[in-house]
Amino acid sequence: MDATYTDPTFAFAAVVVFAAIFVRALTGFGAALVLVPLLSLVWDLRQVVILAAIVQATTGFPVALGARKQADRATLVPLLAGSICGLALGAFLLAVLPLDWLRRGLGVLTLLFGISRFTPLAAQVIAEPGRRLRLLGLPVGFGGGVLTGMIGTGGPPIVAYLQYRLATATARRATLLVYFMVLDFVRLPTYLGSGLGSRTLVLTAVALIPFALLGTATGNFAHGRLSERIVSATIAVLLVLTGVSLLVK
Q1: Is residue 128 part of a domain?
Q2: Which residues in 98-115 are b (16+ Cβ under 10 Å) and which e?
Q3: What is the pLDDT of residue 226?
Q4: Which of 23, 159, 195, 200 is least surrounded by CB atoms within 10 angstroms?
């Protein structure tokens, strides 16, 4: 991991960060699903998870702030309550599990989520505002929190839950943006306090922030102008290829 602009891996990381944050600004999720698996191909997974949290936390706040009025608070509260409880367990597993296990687990999750985007269910939205499904946010949030803390990608269960919970793309995007913003700010102290971070890691993350800001601006501009179906299909192909790469690495 190198914070210098002349390092080849940094150039690759800059492109990945731009693309990942562009996707988040456009759809409300997907930053970690793009960023963590791809950067894990060239950098240490544990370091990548922390770097992703720094980049997402520092650049996600203004986007989430602008979308907060469209977020569904009744859905957010149980999701965040469950996720914050799961974060601590996930961060512990990140610190103690063998790196190869983490990489392969990330590869399986990335591959499965990529394949799922090609199924008819991925395009199906069933809004169910009932109390039972709202309370389901607690265990779903806990699972998402564990995955976020452990491999930085807790989005799949959260996205699937909101697809059934909220009827409009605007509400889902806003709810996801606020959810991930809060989670990123909560997990950062856990990571840095565990001793997993380093000066080089922080400097590299700071050096990548301008590319993330550019991705945010571009994604916000493209929101409502670019077909989300095309973006979703592109992400799905990328996830499948990345998942396979992580499994065979």
Answers
A1: yes
A2: eeeebbebbbebbbebbe
A3: 66
A4: 195
Q: Are 118 and 179 in contact (CB under 8 A)?
A: no
Question: 210 is written with which tokens?
Answer: 């301008």
Among 11, 4, 32, smallest CA distance to 187 is for 32
The mean pLDDT value of the chain amounts to 80
- Range from 85-89, 123-127, 137-141 carrying the lowest mean pLDDT: 123-127
Q: What are phi and psi of 4, to 5 degrees?
A: -85, 140
Domain that holds residue 210: 8-248
Query: Residue 53: inside a domain, yes or no?
Result: yes
pTM listed for this prediction: 0.75
Q: In whole angstroms, what is the distance from residue 35 CA to residue 33 CA?
A: 6
**What was the pLDDT predicted at 125?**
47
Confirm whether 2 is domain-assigned: no
Tally of domains in the chain: 1
Sign of CA dihedral 169, 142, 242, 18: positive
Asked if 165 and 134 count as a contact pair (C-beta separation under 8 A), the reply is yes
In a domain, 144, yes or no: yes
